[in-house]
Amino acid sequence: MSNQKLENYYSGFKKISLQFITAEEFKRIEKTSVYLKFKKGEIILKQGHPPTHVAFLQSGIVKFNFSSEATGKNTILTLVSAPKILGGANLFYKDNNLFSMVAVEDCEVFLIESNVLFELLKSNGRFAVALFQLASEMFKSSILNFISVANKQKEGRIADVFLYLSQDVYFHNSFNLSLTRKELAEFACCSVENIIMTLSKWQQEGIISISGKKMEIIDMNKLKQISKIG
Amino acid sequence: MSNQKLENYYSGFKKISLQFITAEEFKRIEKTSVYLKFKKGEIILKQGHPPTHVAFLQSGIVKFNFSSEATGKNTILTLVSAPKILGGANLFYKDNNLFSMVAVEDCEVFLIESNVLFELLKSNGRFAVALFQLASEMFKSSILNFISVANKQKEGRIADVFLYLSQDVYFHNSFNLSLTRKELAEFACCSVENIIMTLSKWQQEGIISISGKKMEIIDMNKLKQISKIG
DNA sequence: AAGATAACATTGAAAATTTAATGTTTTTTA
DNA sequence: TAAAAAACATTAAATTTTCAATGTTATCTT
């Protein structure tokens, strides 16, 4: 994606909304909303919390993190970059948040009261359909990750994570990874050792190059091949 | 159509729709829709197919089946019983179907043209919100299954499958299971051997009782305990 | 009703994955 | 900036899970 396109793509919630609702209607949202910054590691919407708010991610990257009380383990369902509407299952659903949404890079967020937004959605079908389609992309990426985890062994899964990161999060073959090895493991559903060993191996084989947080996919075809054979 | 069937038909999608749209608007849907029966094993919406249709499941049980070309393996993302609106990621999304929806029991289905339905949703926000909320339940159950698979070992996962079957599919502690052991394995993401051994073990321990297809959960607390410890 | 096919069941060996132990490097913080 | 904490890295042992082989039972088909 070119810089120009990227810039268009990164338009805020207001711009998107005003394609569907009036300035006056948007004011109704604005009145009960806040514009917040979250630092890396901070929780934007918390697992188990009532779905009182929907968040529009204006900039930054967010992980969908499920934390298991019983085992103490985390699972990253998916990772998304701005602009996105964040609401968990709860953009649609009325139960308490299934998982947390946590900033993995500094984020700018427009925090909206759910009931105010929902009233507007009910009165404006085009707006509702547009927002739901935006939101459904995140479901899709979670489901794709599920399919990867269910069908493939660690190398295929880690390959899928890297392909997803380059194609859908950083939009480039090289990127400064904002996840730790532990988080990569939580994303690919394997142990940290699996991540470290696989990355070392791939670096030796010239598939990727790593220096600190900077990662580059050198042989994209080989990575796709690994993803394919699982 | 017999009187009985006619009644099912009216208690299904039409009844729900008429809470939100006019009889005239529903006629627009009806004109381009068909009422179909699917036998056990038949595909209602096929993986990879363009999302030309949305299906309303009037009666029966459906599995969401992802089939991997590379490995030839199947994964059951979730299982749902009527009444439900079926559209995969595609009720929201415009890509080709991510997975198939397959009848695991005889089903009655109202097959609707997507573009006709979507036009109505755009013109009626209350209808849109209601349908999306209905549809999101299936996403939720897929995500819950993902979390189970990602966090737990086989016994915890199989326990989760049984809890889900009794609570959300058959609505009873005893049920005639319409899945084979192979399908149970595809649902809990483990091998058939794991299913067979675990079920035998649980039967010996008095947690469940099995005779043919008839299953009964005897010690629900123990099953929940197994689910919890993973 | 007989034969064929699919489903169910059991077992030991093989493979994949995690755990544990240990050390190095990088980052955070007092 | 020095100490502490976290992240990164490697290896062997233990565990979990799948694969392969085999037989029985149930279901479908002609």
Q: If you had to describe this structure to a student in words, what would you say it looks like?
A:
The first copy, chain A, has nine helices and eleven strands. Chain A is about 45% helix and about 25% strand. Chain A has a four-stranded antiparallel β-sheet. A four-stranded antiparallel β-sheet of chain A has the order 2-7-4-5. Chain A has a three-stranded antiparallel β-sheet with strand order 9-11-10. Chain A has two domains: about 130 residues, Sandwich (Jelly Rolls); about 80 residues, Winged helix-like DNA-binding domain superfamily/Winged helix DNA-binding domain (Arc Repressor Mutant, subunit A). Chain A binds a DNA duplex (30 and 30 nucleotides) through helix 8.
* Number of separate strands of chain A: 11
What is the CATH C level class of the largest domain in chain A, in words?
Mainly Beta
The strand line-up of the biggest sheet of chain A is 1-8-3-6
Assigned CATH architecture of the largest domain in chain A = Sandwich
**Oligomeric nature of the chains:** homodimer
Number of continuous helical runs of chain A: 9
